[in-house]
Predict the 3D structure of the following.
Amino acid sequence: MITNGSWEERWHPLREEWVIIAAHRQQRPWSGETINTNGERLPDYAPDCYLCPGNTRVSGAVNSIYSGTFVFDNDHPSVGPDAPQELIRPLGAVYRNRPAQGMARVVCYSPKHNLTLAELELGEIENLLGVWQAQYLELGSRPGVNHVLIFENKGEAVGVSNPHPHCQIYATNFVFKTIETEAAVGKRYFDGTGRALFQDIITAERADNRRIICENDSAIAFVPYFARYAYEVYVGPKRTHPSLAALSPAEVRDLAHALKRVLVRFDNLWQMPFPYVMALHQAPTDKADYSGFHFHIEFHPPLRKPNLLKYLAGPEIGGGSFLSDTSPEEKAAELRMLPAVHYKQRGAQGEQWG
């Protein structure tokens, strides 16, 4: 019987959402950032990094000598297929819990310890999108998996545990609240209008045009009118698809191009690796009707200035509504005017910087 609260989901009756209790993750290893304090980049390979090729992880597993992306089951997962079934039952009629069942995986973007998503070549980003497609389909087809959440925590400002660039995948037996709400709102809007809500958002952004960062044949990136964070950006296909897996090869290429342009501008803003939380908003995999759900990627950067965080305080945590300290139009203009060549490549590309 579990006594430490690990591998458990507890129902939050006031918010109507599941809270994952994974106390064992407190013991997972932590490492430093990809930039040393003197500004020098870390090397391509780090002998003490548990994500680098050929290295041994805490679990004792040895990484393959991979040359592209590398996917493996998380050694410190918050959910698992073998989550213990025997849990301490809560006292109180309003409380309930259940095993935290699912799968948790890690996706390393590259064998290079210091190569961030922004610095990958366009073809490498396109290949990564293919990996995400395959993971969504494979995990989402498993019995009991109702949602596949793909996300990246980048930078010390958001608490990343290892500087080797990577993302994570949670395949869970519940739908995360943000996606659940987005799906319900989108379905209601679609039933009432016959249109996808995100399509109308794109239409409004294109009509205004001030907040668009970049656009190509089938993909678009913009700071939304209702942005909560200073440099919040949405990137997605123009056509409505329930998930990344539904995009055509041409749409995947265009999406990779838009992603690259946004990521490079993020880093160019202050000429530093730009921290963010990135999340793929994809339809749940519980076989329900998600008419009108529009796949897209959201970036939530925590910084307002190079050393100034957007702290979540009374209005955000206590009240549940964001107070934005900046103008979405001004921040979109800042990003849009930045060079499309990464600042670390300025010498090779002849890019001029102030």
